[in-house]
């Protein structure tokens, strides 16, 4: 799909066709959404679809998860006219932080951290990431927010897979993602 082309009928998820499959092997995610972010209308429609379920909900801040969640999170924060908080992989913040270990989608042990002065008790945070595959990264972000007294107002991602971790998140938090129900099984099987 051309990066300037906008289809006449823009149904939810039309921009998913902009994503590219992994051509570099098993150390990478199976699909790369970054080309979607290059398409002006695709990015706008993706963010609108992510925010639609939260219309009218009290949200005080948007937090994006390192690194691709920064793109969608910052875009969502701009649309909502809210502040943006970066939840980082360990070692990138030069201020006091709270750390949370987790296992990512590839099975690697990592540590996520957030600055301790950005979340006050009761602050309602919308968590945004590019993808929720196994749920480990998002669960670490949830734990960081909640340990600091924040409230998870919702979870938004291009795709929340129907994995054990994805189901755990959906059962406990209001969620939004961009994959239409008819396509969800293909995304869950990485097709």
TrEMBL record:
Signal peptide: none annotated. The chain crosses the membrane at residues 61-80. Pathway: Purine metabolism; AMP biosynthesis via salvage pathway; AMP from adenine: step 1/1. Its main location: cytoplasm. GO terms for biological process: purine ribonucleoside salvage. Its EC number is 2.4.2.7. It holds the Pfam family Pribosyltran. One of its GO terms (cellular component) is cytoplasm. Belongs to the purine/pyrimidine phosphoribosyltransferase family. Residues 57-173 form the Phosphoribosyltransferase domain. InterPro entries: Adenine_PRTase (IPR050120), PRTase-like (IPR029057), PRTase_dom (IPR000836). It catalyses: AMP + diphosphate = 5-phospho-alpha-D-ribose 1-diphosphate + adenine. Homodimer. It is found in: Cytoplasm. Keywords: Cytoplasm, Glycosyltransferase, Membrane, Purine salvage, Transferase, Transmembrane, Transmembrane helix. The keyword Glycosyltransferase applies. SUPFAM superfamilies: PRTase-like. GO terms for molecular function: adenine phosphoribosyltransferase activity. The keyword Transferase applies. It is an enzyme of class 2 (transferase). PANTHER family: ADENINE PHOSPHORIBOSYLTRANSFERASE, PHOSPHORIBOSYLTRANSFERASE DOMAIN-CONTAINING PROTEIN. This is adenine phosphoribosyltransferase.
């Amino acid at each position: 799909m051309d990066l300037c082309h906008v289809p006449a009928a823009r149904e939810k998820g039309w921009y998913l066709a902009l994503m590219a499959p992994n051509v570099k092997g098993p150390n990478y995610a199976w699909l790369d959404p970054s080309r979607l972010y290059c398409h002006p209308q695709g990015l706008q429609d993706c963010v609108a679809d992510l925010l639609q379920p939260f219309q009218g909900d009290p949200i005080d801040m948007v937090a994006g998860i390192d690194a691709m969640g920064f793109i969608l999170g910052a875009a969502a924060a701009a649309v909502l006219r809210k502040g943006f908080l970066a939840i980082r992989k360990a070692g990138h913040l030069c201020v006091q932080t709270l750390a949370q270990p987790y296992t990512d989608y590839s099975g690697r042990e990592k540590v996520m951290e957030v600055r301790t002065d950005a979340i006050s008790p009761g602050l309602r945070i919308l968590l945004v990431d590019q993808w929720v595959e196994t749920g480990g990264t998002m669960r670490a972000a949830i734990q960081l927010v909640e340990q600091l007294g924040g409230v998870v107002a919702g979870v938004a991602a291009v795709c929340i897979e129907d994995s054990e971790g994805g189901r755990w998140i959906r059962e406990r938090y209001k969620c939004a993602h961009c994959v239409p129900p008819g396509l969800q099984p293909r995304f869950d099987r990485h097709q």
